[in-house]
Specification:
Layout: E1 2-3, E2 9-10, E3 17-28, E4 35-46, E5 50-54, H1 61-68, E6 76-81, E7 84-85, H2 91-101, E8 102-106, H3 117-128, H4 134-143, H5 159-172, E9 177-181, H6 189-206, E10 210-213, H7 217-220, E11 225-230, E12 233-239, H8 243-250
Parallel strand pairs: 5-10, 5-11, 8-9, 9-10
Antiparallel strand pairs: 1-2, 3-4, 3-6, 6-7, 11-12
Helix pairs in contact: 3-5, 5-6
Protein name: ABC transporter ATP-binding protein
InterPro entries: AAA+_ATPase, ABC_transporter-like_ATP-bd, ABC_transporter-like_CS, ABC_transpr_LolD-like, MacB-like_ATP-bd, P-loop_NTPase
Domain ABC transporter: 19-256
């Protein structure tokens, strides 16, 4: 058993880690302008688990996700996807790893307007010269509820449907892990709930691993666990969260992101 700074105990996990950060540090600037965005962060993201990352503005949550996804360089420590150490990879190998092992979902849907939903979903695989696994693709499309909308272009889809296309695109290549940065930030509450439900289903029904940065306690309640950051450090963890328990934990941070 391990104990969080607030005294809560968590049971040991037996599943394999999809991604691991060890003493991960990210520093911006030098001298008086230096900012420590991540301060020796160590955390594991287990396979087939949905993790939400939360914290006050400037706490380092987006920086942690970007470093773990290979979108930003690290100043020290280790970031690993599966058995692959990201900090040891050259640019070409890092690009290949992001393409083959990582899925991305962002606030902006990033869909090509000239392609229909199916073409947008398979675009990353088409660029990589990989053929989609039809059975898996059909399962993903069914999971996100897009079976009747595949021939529609983005301007013929609602915001929620466009984000579902983005979710399906991230899932279609069967990545080892999906990173989602505020994926419901541009959606109304109903569409946001649909997308979060699809992400949760992708974990439970498809065995996917999802790591989501969010500021919303309701969004975090869809996850299996929530990791809280403050001042570039992990300060707490909550399993089986509800919106109420997440909000209660967030109230322990003051306006500057410190733990009270």
């Amino acid at each position: 058993m391990t104990t969080t700074p607030y005294g809560a105990q968590t049971a040991p996990r037996t599943r394999v880690a999809a991604a691991v950060a060890t003493d991960l540090t990210k520093v911006y600037g030098q001298g008086e302008t230096q900012v420590v965005a991540l301060d020796a962060v160590s955390v594991e993201f287990q396979q087939a688990e949905f993790t939400a990352i939360m914290g006050p503005s400037g706490s380092g949550k987006s920086t942690l996700m970007h470093c773990m996804a290979g979108l930003d360089t690290v100043s020290g420590g280790s970031a690993r996807i599966g058995d692959t150490e990201l900090t040891a990879l050259k640019d070409k190998k890092l690009t290949q790893l992001r393409r083959d092992k990582i899925g991305f979902i962002f606030q902006a849907f990033n869909l090509l307007p000239t392609l229909n939903a199916l073409e947008n979903i398979t675009l990353p695989m088409d660029i990589a010269g990989r053929k989609a696994d039809k059975a898996w693709l059909d399962q993903v499309v069914a999971t996100v509820g897009l079976s009747g909308r595949l021939k529609h272009r983005p301007n013929q889809l609602s915001g929620g449907q466009q984000q579902r296309v983005a979710v399906a695109r991230a899932l279609a290549g069967r990545p080892e892990i999906i990173f989602a940065d505020e994926p419901t930030g541009n959606l109304d509450s109903r569409s946001g709930a649909e997308v979060l439900g699809f992400l949760r289903n992708s974990v439970r029904e498809l065995g996917q691993t999802v790591v989501m940065v969010t500021h919303d306690p309701v969004a975090a309640s869809y996850a299996d666990r929530v990791v809280f950051l403050a001042d570039g450090r992990i300060v707490d963890e909550l399993r089986d969260p509800t919106a109420e328990t997440v909000l209660d934990r967030m109230k322990r941070f003051d306006a500057k992101g410190r733990v009270s």
